[in-house]
Amino acid sequence: MKINLKWIIKQLPIKLLIALLVTVIWGSFQGVINGAIFGKFPTLVHASQPELNRFLIYATILFVLVYTGFFLEHIIINYTRRRLKIALKKQMMNISFQHQEKVSKGLNRISNDANKIDDSYFQNIINVFVSGTEALISTVYVLNVNLVMGLIAILFSALSMIPALFGKQRLAALGKKWSKSNNKTLEVAEDWLSGRAEIIQYNAKKIFFKKLVSKITNTESLALKQENLNWVILYCNLLATVASFIIPWGIGFIFIQNQMFNVTISVLLTLTLTANNVVQSTRNLMQYWTEMLGSKDIRKLPEKLKEAELVQNSDPKPNLDIKNLGLKYSNYDIFKNINLHIPYGQKILLTGESGVGKSSLLNIIANNIHPSEGQVTYDDRQITPTDVIYIRQDPWLFSGSVRENLTLGKDISDDKLLAALKQVNLLTELGDNILDREISAQVDTLSGGQKQRLSIARALLHQRPIILMDEITSSIDDKNADIIRDLIYNLPNTIIEVAHHTNKQLLKKYNFEVLLLRNKQLTKER
Ligand SMILES: Nc1ncnc2c1ncn2[C@@H]1O[C@H](COP(=O)(O)OP(=O)(O)OP(=O)(O)O)[C@@H](O)[C@H]1O
């Protein structure tokens, strides 16, 4: 999807659009007021005192009115930008979430990209509208003051558009390059920070830092090129503006000397001050237009995906069916033609060598990745994310209290929460006021095993018909692992577990079926 004018209009309520239109027109009279007032000066040379007083009052009212409009225009513009930025960031975060984008990419979207879109698109598109209105109002005024002289002044004002026309493509290309380079920089910066332990251990600081600095330098050089090109275009604009002043003056003096087309010094003074605004607004318009084009690439977002419909199961004990399932990565089959009927309550252990696709299969069932072919149906319909609870090796705990992490916004009593914590042996370990204990998603305040057990307590509280477990006890000691397994296996749910180390007695006790993924196929182990 694209962030464009249509998108902007969709985000703004009609009342705000009207307020924007009215205040922009009102504020645009700013461009003609100087010419209108100062142009009267030559006629006031022989005016009486009361006439001069009347002129001063008239000028004061006019100035205050126009500047009030100018002030309101900018308040409304700020309010409009705020709305657009909120809508943009909401959309970006939703899209990143749906497309399972890398964290660094998603964060880059709402920080760098969103700010850049605001700077180079939202502000500029509003500025184009403001400058266009100012140019239009000034033009009408100029032509009204003196048609011939006004036309000459406007014609020469068009000169200032030429440099922007030549620079726009180059600017757009630079904008694209900058965005690419900035993404690369963030990727390398993430390596630098997340891979800190490895970098120190393998004495690779120098090479990684060099790589990071080179990416930062490249991104900044591209930003500099963009800014410099903007200034070159602006400089050429200014030079063209000089010509658009001087030439009409020369023509105007000839008209005055020869008493042609009613041109007077008063007319020339008014036109110089007002036609200047036609030039200025037109030049601004082109400048904003060019900057706006530079944001073309960054305004392209991935398409919004249709959310899977979450359906209530008609059958309280639904069966799971895997039909003709296949997964390919870069045209290489990880597995294919997998067929499996899993009656409700069946317990399955999925085994196989490293890299055969066990986690991928669990992720397909959990709806986290899409298969290349085939499908997983549940209760005779497409499986949805809320049918399953996927307990993984590295669970994510949210910044907030233990209570918030367990309830995830649902209404669950403290007694139930404490009971679940007791089941995973956390009640005594985490001290008093356990439910109010704050957890940080950024800093490790719990051990790996504690995090894992907390995520299992969460899973126990949010019952789902299917439980998927991927190496869930890898960071838990054997004693706790057995307690937790016994606890989960005892549930009536369908369970599919991937684990390298298991407890054979427990597998037997709960009548587990062991499936082996090998040579791209799934077979039953006896
Ligand atoms: N996004 C991806 N792009 C390309 N290949 C991928 C991607 N994700 C996984 N793979 C490949 O798919 C194969 C299956 O990976 P998966 O993690 O499912 O294996 P696994 O059996 O769970 O391995 P392990 O037991 O080591 O965890 C691997 O060969 C892996 O390299």
Automatic annotation (TrEMBL):
The reply to whether Transmembrane figures as a keyword in the UniProt entry is: yes
Source organism superkingdom: Bacteria
Domain called ABC transporter: residue spans:
320-526
InterPro entries of this UniProt entry?
A: AAA+_ATPase, ABC1_TM_dom, ABC1_TM_sf, ABC_transporter-like_ATP-bd, ABC_transporter-like_CS, P-loop_NTPase, Sigma_54_int_dom_ATP-bd_1, Type_1_exporter
Which Gene Ontology MF annotations are present?
A: ATP binding
Q: Where is the ABC transmembrane type-1 domain?
A: 16-294
The protein's topology relative to the membrane is: Multi-pass membrane protein
**What is the predominant subcellular site recorded for this chain?**
membrane
* SUPFAM superfamilies from the UniProt entry: ABC transporter transmembrane region, P-loop containing nucleoside triphosphate hydrolases
Q: Identify the keywords attached in UniProt to this record, alphabetized.
A: ATP-binding, Membrane, Nucleotide-binding, Transmembrane, Transmembrane helix
List the Pfam families hit by this protein, alphabetically: ABC_membrane, ABC_tran
Location in the cell reads: Cell membrane
Annotated transmembrane regions: 55-80, 125-143, 149-167, 232-255, 261-279
- Give the matching Gene3D superfamilies: ABC transporter type 1, transmembrane domain, P-loop containing nucleotide triphosphate hydrolases
- In the UniProt record, does the keyword Transmembrane occur? yes
Question: Which PANTHER family did the record assign?
Answer: ATP-BINDING CASSETTE SUB-FAMILY B (PTHR24221), ATP-BINDING CASSETTE SUB-FAMILY B MEMBER 6 (PTHR24221:SF654)
Name of the protein? ATP-binding cassette subfamily B protein
